[in-house]
Amino acid sequence: MLESTKIHTPSQMSRVFDIAKDTVLFLLLSCYYILESLFWTLMPNAIRPMKNLKGDVVVVTGAGGGVGRHLSIKLARLGAKVVAWDINKEALKETCSALTDEGYEVASYIVDLADRNSVYSTAEKVKKEVGKVDMLINNAGTVFGETLLELCDAAIETTYKVNILSHYWTVKAFLPEMIKTGKGHIVTVGSVAGLLGTYRCTDYSATKFATVGFHESLFTELRAHGHNTIYATLVCPYYINTGMFDGVTPRLMPMLEPDYVAETMIDSIRKNEVNCVMPGSVRYLLPLKCLLPAKMCWDLMHRVMKGPQSMMDLKKKQNVA
């Protein structure tokens, strides 16, 4: 009888006490965090302290058009030194012209993000020619708009190389110096399609889901190693009216305009926010996919939101040979 009785050794009791102590401390801090979040949420941007970007070197990938171009212009207006990356030479020229016409200097580089060596070599050029990078905005992305069986293998590989693998190469290139100086910001542009699987986007959605995991894991590593002055922000916007999703006809809410997305991103960055979902209302719908029965979720998506139907007329991009 006594032999079967569990004896709580001091080490076991100590572990139980530590868990209880940490749980109580967590609950107390949670009250503070919630109140702090409500306070900053209700405070207008006009009177809220915002990060000063003047003189900061900011690399923007996919700067040749869409949100990337708007980001470049708005960052320059805030005093940042913009380093524009894009694979499209003509589009990059247009972005540079828009900046120089307003009197801003810009450094531009033609980069194929699908080529790891190109990313690393260009990053070295930036560090030598411009200086230490203070902020990296991984904004570039691509989509082909085909169902899984229509996608060629090369298109799938390209989507992964541009939409997620390039994030590894750019962050590995610039993060060490950020850590060395104790100043930096990594901005990962994901998508609502990275929070909710989307029709005709098995490649795109999967890579955007990957950006969420990449951001969350990177954030954890930075905090676990005490790099609290290196910030990480994840941006997940709804469909953006940039041409990438030409032909899509959303039912419940219109596409976002690139100017609005860029403005909201910069506000989020200047607040050092960890997550930014656009529009904000979407974040309240996302938990439903885990809480509701699967059949109910599908009916909500198919019957009410018309998600698959809205993607039926998406203009396909040319498959990679």
From TrEMBL:
The keyword Lipid metabolism applies. Keywords: Lipid metabolism, Membrane, NADP, Oxidoreductase, Transmembrane, Transmembrane helix. InterPro entries: NAD(P)-bd_dom_sf, SDR_fam. It comes from the Eukaryota. The chain crosses the membrane at residues 23-43. The keyword Lipid metabolism applies. Belongs to the short-chain dehydrogenases/reductases (SDR) family. PANTHER family: MIP05442P (PTHR24322:SF729), PKSB (PTHR24322). This is Short-chain dehydrogenase/reductase 3. It comes from Papilio xuthus (Asian swallowtail butterfly). The gene is LOC106126893.
